[in-house]
Amino acid sequence: MLLTCQSGFEALLGAEVAAARLGAVDASGAGWVRLGARSADPLPELCFAHRALLEPVEICGESVNALAGRLCEWFLGSLRGEKVDATWPSVWQAPIEIPGLGKRLGSVETEFNALLKKRLSRVSKLASPELPRGTGPARGLFVFASDFGRIQAARCAWLGGQRRMADDPAAPSRSYLKTEEAFVVLGREPVAGETVADLGAAPGGWSYSAAKRGAQVVAVDNGPLKGGALDNPRIEHRREDAFRFRPAPGQRYDWLFCDMVEDPRRVLELVTQWTRGRWCRHFVVNLKFGHADALALLDHARRSSESPLRDCAVARVRHLFHDREEFTLVGSLVE
Ligand SMILES: C[S@@+](CC[C@H](N)C(=O)[O-])C[C@H]1O[C@@H](n2cnc3c(N)ncnc32)[C@H](O)[C@@H]1O
User: Among 70, 143, 194, 273, which is least packed by CB within 10 angstroms?
Assistant: First the structure.
């Protein structure tokens, strides 16, 4: 099994995999970790993995044509007995840290597509380069280039839901991208008329993200709002301490957002107050681990009896594509 992650987080992913007893890492590189063992079925929830290529084959070749030709032969062989009559994902990825590798993989993809079109035009027309939105298993073609002469390919993948999001020039912060991505991981987003409490809101990226969908937001932060969040008619700014902020008696927010640079365990306790009190229906919470023990925090967030995830019908913890030294919890409470 080949797991991909954000570059620089391979060791954390390896440690998470070891803690989940998924097997030993037998190789790793920028943005990937390979396990010798067969993949577990079903795969446990992983935070640091963005994607798992299940039972990948390694294809080597000195040239673009050699790689594309071998990949195409393998792919055609893997299709035997399979009826392809719906759109299928053809997802190609190379770590951006290796200069030129993305371009090279792009050339292999173009050549592969041309070969497939010649051999199986009907199947080739149904290919989509889009990474499917959401989490869980997917079938298609998943290719990862670990270096110039070597690619890993698989027909099946497990998707964590992480993906690069498109920026919005009116968004007041980069953080905006995190909540946009978190909605994909949760499989749900605020809609018009819903209410949001955004704790630690400034400069307002998350608030802006909800407001642009028509939600009504209370943005709690002593700091100033900026850009598209400033003077936004759907955003009410309250200069208060988020640890003291409470819904009005009998009020339940549809969403709790929380992105405070504070002790993550204290933030988790606060969020649990919100979920136990049933003060929200869904949440997006970012925990900053900085130089602290990320895995201990992850374990605490997942397993503590005081975790807000315990109150959820759907709960996921992910190191997002747009996260740095932090991970993000998303959840929908049991109704
Ligand atoms: C990473 S920023 C939030 C970015 C925001 N999510 C965005 O999209 O623009 C963290 C914010 O947490 C706020 N914060 C930290 N502790 C807080 C507290 N006790 N009450 C309210 N805000 C707090 C800081 O003022 C800071 O603006």
Answer: 273
